[in-house]
Amino acid sequence: MKRILVIGSCGAGKSTFAKQLHDRLGIELVHLDQEYWQPDWTRTDREVFREKVRRLVKKEEWIMDGNYRNTMDIRFPAADTIIFLDRSPLVCFYRILKRRFDNKRADLIAGCEERVTFELMKWTLWKFRMTSRKEILQRMDEVKNEKRIVILKSDKEIAEFIGSIHE
Predict the structure, then answer these.
(1) 3-156 carries CATH number 3.40.50.300
(2) Are 143 and 82 in contact (CB under 8 A)?
(3) What is the pTM of this model?
C-alpha cells in the first residue's frame, strides 16, 4: 500500500482513519478538503482543483482522503488501494453533529469554522446513499481485479484493519 485512497460520506471518519494510516505507515497524508476549501467555505474552481489533484496523485506515495466525485476519474487509476468507509447515514449524521459541538476535526480547514447546514444533513442522510455510494461501489467493482479494495462498515472493522497494518 503506497497510494491509498480513503473515501466515504461526510462524517464517516475518513480524515481520522487516514491519519491513523499515516501514523502507522508514515506515508504523506493529503486531506482533499484542505486542498479544495478556501476561507469562509469558498469553493475552488473545478478545473483548478482537478489540476491540483492531478499533481498530487503523481507523487510516489500518498494517503488521500475525500469524496469529491468529480476527481474520482483521476484518483481511482492512480491508487493501488481504495478504502471505502461505508458507514450508516445515522452514524455519519451523529458524527457531524458531534464534530461541530466538540470542535474537533482531524483535517482542520484554515479560515473555515465548522458548521452544520441543511444541505450537509440532506447530503449525509439521503443523497450520498442515493448517488455517490452507488457510483463508488460501481467504480470499485470495475477495478477490483487491479486494485486492493477494502470496505469497512463499523468501528470494529476499522480498528481491526488498522491493527492489521505493519509499518
Answers:
(1) yes
(2) yes
(3) 0.90
Handedness of CA 57, 166, 31, 83 (dihedral sign): positive
- Per-residue pLDDT 10s for the chain (167 aa) are 999 999 999 889 999 999 999 999 999 999 999 999 898 889 999 999 999 999 999 999 999 999 999 999 999 999 999 999 999 999 988 888 887 777 665 566 777 677 777 787 888 888 888 889 999 999 999 999 999 999 999 999 999 999 999 75
Q: 15: which residues sit within 8 A by CB, 6+ positions away?
A: 31, 33, 65, 105, 106, 107
Query: What are 110's three cell numbers?
Result: 484554515
> Which residues 6+ apart lie within 8 Å of 100 measured at CB?
114, 115, 116
| 151 DSSP 8-state letter | E
- Locate the domains of the chain by residue range: 3-156
d(CA 130, CA 35): 26
Q: Cell 481511482 sits at which residue? A: 76
Bridge partners for 31 per DSSP: 65
Residue 82: strand, helix, or coil: strand
H helix intervals, the chain? 14-25, 32-36, 46-57, 72-78, 89-102, 118-122, 128-130, 132-143, 155-164
